Amino acid sequence: MSRRFRTSPLPSLSIPGPLYSLHVLRVGFSRPGGPLPGSFRADGTVTLLRGGPLTVLVDTGGPWLRPHLPGLLAARGVTPGDVTHVIVTHGHSDHAGNLNLFPA
Known about the structure:
It holds the Pfam family Lactamase_B. The chain has helices at about 70-75, 95, and strands spanning about 15, 20-25, 30, 40-45, 45-50, 55-60, 85. By secondary structure, the chain is mainly beta.
């Protein structure tokens, strides 16, 4: 039995709050169409969380995002050096591909 799933990216969201703000810098996706039959193409979401003394980046995107990531951060008034914490949801390259842009 064949199942078909349809996915679509969520719109970019910015949810301000009195104690924190959350900004989706890059919307991820997953869709059929990889190089092998039955495979998928996917890219992870990159999210910025700001509150109090913390500036947290959840996932850094893939290495192909490297030229664009500083500009995505700058649009929110943040430089890579301003990021105090990085959370990587898992070790795939589309989630952890730019860890080296952030100081230890």
